[in-house]
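5'-nucleotidase SurE
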Amino acid sequence: MRILVTNDDGINAPGLRVLEGIAATLAGPQGEVWTIAPAFEQSGVGHCINYTKPTLITELSPRRYMIEGSPADCILCALYDPMKDALPDLILSGVNRGNNAAENTLYSGTIGAAIEGALQGVLSIALSQFYGPENRDLDDPFEAAVEHGADVCRRILAQKRNDANGYSVFWNVNFPPVAAADVKGIRLAPQGRRPGVNFSTIPHDAPNGRRFLWISGGNQQIAPADGTDAAINLEGYISVTPMRADLTAHDVFSGITDLDT
């Protein structure tokens, strides 16, 4: 198996090394793991692409590149330049430092890479490690992902391909904020929404009088509705969520009146 690995935390992120290990396990001794990741951290860029200027790509070693762009740029660069003659069978994005469950999914560059992979027709999985008081001080906060990552991916690979209207499914996996030994299992879960949790800004006035705003996230320990992704993560389960890039609110169609003329 030929696997492409990327992330949004940057080429030197510890979670990328975790993901390369997962990919090597999945690829096997006869397979290949290609790493093409951002030169710098790209957290929060979503599905952004570098549309208005050229993207610098640098080969660091065989099958390992960094680019000055977003995670979605990494996918485009990989598929249309170094891997164009032998496309990947699988794209893995992550392992993100912090969860990409609930509303975080909408901002995530980790997810953005998986979206682009799916749009390009390649099976794509985003993987993220929830942080919390039970794992953030461990010697390896990623140990749940290290221990269980390859198994979760194998289970996803065994599923039937499911495309609709040209939008392929991609997969969002979040490992719970606990030690590997305390993971209770895997649960299929829909995306949730943490009540009252939003990104916001924190103002800061510099000594020269200029005003700066820091973007701030909300409380990640608040659970959304029972059975949704972040809720089961906080209960100690790995969440697996199939997703598509189709943003249509299909459930609203039947309740809309007086719009078709």
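thats it. The mean pLDDT is 96. The helical segments are 14-27, 71-80, 109-119, 143-157, 229-234. bye
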